[in-house]
Design goal:
The complex is a heterodimer of chains A (483) and B (462).
Chain A lengths: L1 H32 L11 H8 L5 E2 L5 E7 L6 E4 L7 H4 L2 E2 L3 E2 L1 H5 L1 H5 L6 H10 L7 E4 L3 H11 L4 E7 L5 E7 L4 H4 L4 H13 L21 H10 L7 E3 L3 E2 L8 E2 L10 E3 H6 L3 H12 L1 H10 L25 H7 L10 H12 L4 E2 L4 E5 L5 E4 L4 E3 L4 H17 L11 E9 L8 E10 L2 E9 L6 H17 L2
Helix pairs in contact in A: 7-17, 10-12, 10-13, 10-16, 12-14
Chain B lengths: L7 H27 L8 H20 L7 H22 L3 H4 L7 H23 L10 H17 L2 H4 E2 L2 E2 L2 E3 L2 E3 L1 H26 L1 E4 L2 E4 L5 H17 L2 H19 L2 H21 L1 H11 L10 H13 L22 H34 L3 H25 L17 H22 L12 H10 L1
Antiparallel strand pairs in B: 1-2, 3-4, 5-6
Classes of the chains: A alpha+beta (483), B mainly alpha (462).
Chain lengths: 483, 462
């Protein structure tokens, strides 16, 4: 009987072998490699597990906490809290049971939750000591004063503000209104979260839309900075004479381009500086069609960041010029004054200002200054990098001269800050026949080594919108400059 | 003549190691689920350890040559089971209440008590039955008892026998037990005896068809009887797992006894036929098969349990979440059929593989005992017991990992429940008894090595 017993032994080994092979398939292949089972929508474990760990904080410089986890003692142990509520909502985002994460809570989730590879040693000690591993912390580049100035300055209006340190690309403020309270959305109570989610999503004002990063709008006359950059790069100076006049009719069209008011640039010729200072539509449209041409214009826009989705690590939309073609002068003429298919995010507006302020070098924008382990050890520090050099230093100083003239003598006087070199460009963008215009201001403030760039956007703010935007830009830049 | 080592000290050492692992597991499970190691973490493992040491002492005196690995391996499984059940008790509570749960409550403590009873039975069997061959005297009684035990839940009204759709229980007030667990051991003894007696007629007379020796028609009788019996179990108790177990163990023992592959072919063929037949008749079986085929098609409904089991295994991955740190209580019946899914989530692929290797070691040691023991009855019984244990592990672990359709079986030594623990500890007692005979030096026993005929004659004489 021994021979069959040995064979039965082999059969038993085969049966166990099948179990092992299948377990490898379930636990290693489906569980670890594809993570299909781990990440299945039916799997409540990972979520419960995530809530068991103390999620890291989101901080500002100086240790100000804008997002933290508090111990509830419940089954979902830790709950997210946001001490500043709506003011930082579009930056920190939310962390919801049902609706996923947004903002930095989304972009830095691996670090905050402790899943990041950078925290491996931390997890290992957690595993050995049986303690739950806490997540790492994220320190933002946001300047609290500038952010609060931006958020309260926007007030009840719809709009967005972005302020950037032009020398590094660090984002100092980014506000979008109307805003939302991330607290209820991040509640561990599913009902509270659902109620908040429904309320915000049904609000026609779209409070959860990040207007600064995630949407783009016609930039209006702020686009003339790009026209001017091309003009200066072609050898013109701020004092070169360009054709103006109260009307310009591009070839092959009946649509006539006029200035915002008959008193603007009625002369046949004005200097380039004057054209920008008083925002001469006829001068820039004619110049774009006759001298600058479609190719150089769209290349210049790309060099300033159009067409790029910036990862800060919160991802922005890419701004667009739409197709520009010399064979379609009507579109080109309209695009040169920021209409037609040109759309720009407020972040992109601030980047134009930053490139000009920083001598023609555009730094990559970033929101995270530093990441820290749960023991507050520094994991990673932001390393500022150059995104592009859209214009030469000479052209940049020409642009600065012209934009300072806008603030000193032209449409942007509301942005003036005593003792500070402030430059910029206003914009009033038409949004269709019956609707109110968007108001814009794109500019910079230079004080010693400090170079702050800013973009303010006011959605459908109407006639006085650009002046309001200009005023707010001054306030925000002033706040950012204060040490 | 050199003395054959008894290896009892090896067993003691391994047993102490097993108790140590259970202690560490208990501390880790408390730290993981309650956030702290309570002052009582050692109570269950140490109580269990004392009982196991007592079992070791019994073995030392009444089965000194027994295999030294079987008892520690089973002890470790049982210990991990007790601690894991306590861990499930903790998991049912709110976080802040967990550290305060008394060790003398819940499934964990209940399982410890059942373990005490089971080890008591284990010791009693070893003390009373000093020679496994004496069991063959009661073979027919055991066979009858087995059939009756299997039949009881089937004939009882559902109110007294049905749990979760399977009629496997006898429920009398607060006490309920699964007679089928005991029937398994009783029937094994009967099969071993019957097949040793009939092995010659079953193996010699045959027709050769296509190179394989097939038995004569009239010798098919016993197979047909067991087949019918299994099918009746399947139809009346709606339990494919148990039917598969009985049939599998019978066919394998038939093969061991006769050394004929044809029996396996016939066995597999008839079982497959019966299963297909039953599939068309038993709705519960159709449901089980369709869940097995695609559990995710109704992941929140009928497939919920299996889906959650798979997701638990998957979440565990290679290393697991760590003892106490997973969410095994999400799976309904995590303390019974699905206890391996809980282990898979918390100790991962590596830990679970090690755990299954413990079963494999017991099965392999048992088969080695069968090869080593000198009498045919002992060979057949040890082979049958070992293989049946392995088959049960395969059926239940294969079921919860979606390798085969899920059939309600307990996981030996891990699942909550007294019947399963007692029956399986009795099974281990038999294996240890036979292994003692297998390793005992020939000269130590005055009798000649037994031949089959002798064993048979002896039975009649006494």
């Amino acid at each position: 009987m021994n021979a069959p017993l040995r064979r039965v032994g082999i059969v038993a080994l085969v049966l166990f072998g099948l179990l092992f092979v299948n377990l490898n398939y379930v636990q290693f292949y489906k569980g670890t490699i594809t993570e299909e089972y781990r990440n299945s929508p039916y799997n409540g474990r990972v979520r419960l597990d995530e809530y068991k760990n103390e999620r890291g904080e989101i901080l500002l410089g100086g240790g100000v906490i804008v997002a933290k986890s508090v111990d509830t003692g419940g089954e979902l142990r830790y709950q997210r809290e946001y001490p500043f509520g709506p003011a930082f909502a579009h930056i920190v985002g939310y962390k919801s049971i049902h609706y996923g994460n947004a903002g930095i809570e989304y972009a830095e989730n691996d670090l905050l939750s402790g899943k990041s590879g950078d925290l491996f040693v931390n997890r290992l000690t957690g595993m050995l000591t049986g303690k739950n591993a806490a997540g790492g912390s994220v320190q933002l580049t946001i300047n609290q004063k500038a952010q609060e100035a931006a958020f309260s300055g926007l007030g009840n209006r719809k709009g967005a503000v972005v302020a950037i340190d032009a020398t590094t690309g660090a984002i100092l403020a980014t506000a979008s209104t109307p805003s939302f309270d991330p607290g209820p959305l991040s509640s561990n109570s599913g009902a509270t979260a659902q109620e908040a989610w429904t309320k915000y999503n049904n609000d026609p004002a779209q409070p959860m839309l990040n207007r600064a990063f995630a949407n783009r709008y016609p930039p209006g006359s702020t686009f003339k900075i790009i026209d001017s950059a091309v003009a200066l790069s072609k050898g013109l100076t701020p004092d070169s004479m360009v054709k103006a006049g109260s009307e310009y009719r591009p070839p092959q069209t009946t649509h006539v381009i006029r200035n915002a008011h008959p008193s603007i640039c009625p002369q046949a010729e004005v200097t380039l500086k004057t054209a920008l200072t008083f925002s001469c539509n006829t001068a820039f449209s004619r110049m774009a069609v006759e001298d600058l041409k479609a190719g150089p214009l769209s290349n210049q826009a790309k060099a300033f960041g159009f067409g790029t989705k910036f990862e800060t690590p919160m991802v922005s939309v890419a701004s667009e010029t739409g197709p520009l073609d010399d064979k379609d002068p009507a579109v080109l003429a309209g695009s040169a004054i920021g209409q037609q298919n040109v759309t720009m995010s407020p972040l992109q507006g601030a980047l134009i200002g930053a490139a000009v302020a920083n001598g023609g070098t555009l730094m990559k924008p970033y929101l995270v200054a530093e990441t820290q382990g749960p023991d507050l050890s520094v994991i990673d520090k932001a390393n500022p990098g150059v995104f592009s050099r859209p214009v030469t230093p000479d052209v940049a100083s020409g642009l600065q001269e012209m934009m300072v003239s806008v603030v000193e003598n032209g449409t942007g006087t509301a942005a003036k800050i005593p003792g500070v070199k402030v430059g910029g460009k206003t914009g009033t963008a038409e949004t269709g026949a019956a609707a109110d215009e968007h108001g814009w201001f794109v500019g910079f403030a230079i004080k010693g080594n400090q170079k702050i760039a800013v973009a303010v956007f006011l959605e459908r703010a109407g006639e006085g919108g650009s002046r309001e935007a200009t005023k707010l830009a001054g306030t925000v830049m002033n706040a950012a400059l204060a040490k | 003549m050199p003395r054959t080592p008894t290896r009892r000290n090896t067993e003691l050492l391994l047993l102490l190691g097993a108790i140590g692992i259970v202690l560490i597991f208990s501390a880790a499970a408390e730290a993981g689920s309650a956030g702290e190691v309570t002052a009582d973490f050692w109570v269950l493992p140490v109580m269990l350890g004392l009982v196991l040491l007592a079992a070791h002492v019994v073995v030392r005196f009444v089965a000194p040559y027994a295999d030294p690995v079987i008892l520690p391996a089973v002890a470790l499984l049982n210990g991990l089971g007790v601690v894991f059940l306590r861990r499930l008790d903790l998991g049912e509570l709110n976080l802040k209440d967990r550290a305060g749960l008394s060790v003398f409550s819940g499934l964990g403590f209940k399982q410890l008590i059942w373990t005490l009873v089971a080890i008591g039975l284990f010791s009693a069997l070893l003390i009373v039955v000093r020679d496994h061959k004496s069991i063959s005297r009661y073979a027919y009684s055991l066979g009858l008892a087995g059939v009756v035990l299997v039949a009881i839940p089937a004939v009882l009204p559902s109110s007294l026998s049905e749990v979760n759709g399977a009629k496997l229980w006898v429920r009398l007030g607060p006490v309920s037990f699964q007679p089928g667990e005991f029937a398994k051991v009783a029937l094994l003894c009967f099969f071993a005896y019957y097949l040793v007696r009939k092995r010659e007629v079953l193996s010699l007379a045959s027709k050769r068809i296509a190179g394989i020796d097939f038995p004569r028609g009239r010798d098919l009788g016993p197979v047909l009887a067991v087949w019918l019996f299994s099918m009746l179990v399947l139809v009346f108790e709606q339990d494919l797992g148990t039917a598969l177990m009985y049939f599998g163990m019978f066919v394998v023992m038939l093969y061991i006894a006769t050394e004929r592959v044809s029996w396996i072919l016939i066995g597999l063929g008839t079982f497959a036929g019966g299963a297909v037949l039953a599939h068309s008749m038993v709705s519960r079986l159709q449901l089980r098969v369709s869940i097995w085929w695609d559990p995710f098609s109704d992941a929140r409904g009928k497939g919920y349990q299996l889906v959650q089991s798979l997701l638990g295994f998957g979440t565990g991955g290679l290393f697991g979440t760590g003892p106490g740190a997973g969410q095994p209580t999400i799976i309904p019946e995590a303390e019974n059929d699905f206890i391996t899914a809980g282990f898979g989530e918390e100790i991962g692929l590596f830990g679970l593989t090690a755990l299954l290797c413990l079963y494999m070691v017991v099965v392999m040691r048992g088969l080695r005992t069968a090869v080593g023991v000198r009498d045919s009855f002992g060979k057949l019984l040890a082979g049958g017991l070992s293989f049946t244990l392995g088959l049960q592990v395969f059926v239940i672990v294969g079921g919860v990992t979606k390798l085969i359709p899920l059939t309600g079986q307990t996981t030996p030594f891990l699942s909550a429940g007294g019947s399963s623990l007692m029956a399986n500890w009795l099974l281990i007692a038999l294996l240890i008894r036979i292994s003692d005979a297998a390793r005992r030096p020939v000269l130590a026993t005055p009798k000649e090595p037994l031949k089959l005929q002798d064993a048979h004659t002896e039975v009649i004489r006494t």
